Amino acid sequence: MPQKPQQTSGTTSKELRIIARPATTIEAVKKDPDKLKLLTIIDHLKIISERSLNSLVYALSKEKNIKFRYSFVLVDQIPSSKELSEDVRVLLYLGLVETEPTLRKLRLTSSGKEFLGQNKLDENTLNELLKAVDELKERILSEERVAEFSARPVRGRRRFRR
């Protein structure tokens, strides 16, 4: 039976795209130094937003010359990385990281802390990373506070009329 040709001019269609990704396991995370670095950063800072994590990893790679495989795009002077976001989603999926429900920030789970305790970075890399994170921590956290403050809904003043 002949198929009808698809119309392309003037009409729009909604199309479901399925993107196949290989399943990531805990073993793959053990072998990936970037994911181990992310876990170490989140553990060291205790809690951080995904946006601030993007800014921190960008600053670490540009200013402190710490190697990451992430490519960044600057959108209105805010760094964003698709690969970094995918790695965060993988860590969330595996249960190593969770999202704080009220603040919508990332933190390590108990299984993430246990995993990180068993699979640490080598001592030299760990010390270099933590030193660089401590140097950039105040700047990143102040940017995070400004973003929180500007995103906070503005409540109107109540005016009582008599």
Describe the structure.
There is one protein chain. The chain is globular, with a radius of gyration of 21 Å. Helix 2 crosses helix 6 and helix 3 (50-63) packs across helix 6 (123-151). The protein is built from 6 helices and 4 strands. The chain has a single domain (26-148), classed as Arc Repressor Mutant, subunit A (Orthogonal Bundle), CATH 1.10.10. It has helices at residues 26-31, 33-45, 50-63, 82-94, 110-118, 123-151, and strands spanning 73-75, 78-80, 97-99, 106-108. It is mainly α. The model has no long low-confidence stretch (mean pLDDT 85). The protein has a two-stranded antiparallel ribbon.
Summary?
By secondary structure, this protein is mainly alpha-helical.
The largest sheet has its strands arranged as 1-2
Number of strands: 4
Low-confidence stretches: none
The averaged pLDDT comes out at 85
Keywords:
globular, 162 residues, two-stranded antiparallel sheet, 6 helices, 52% helix, 4 strands, 7% strand, two-stranded antiparallel ribbon, mainly alpha, Arc Repressor Mutant, subunit A
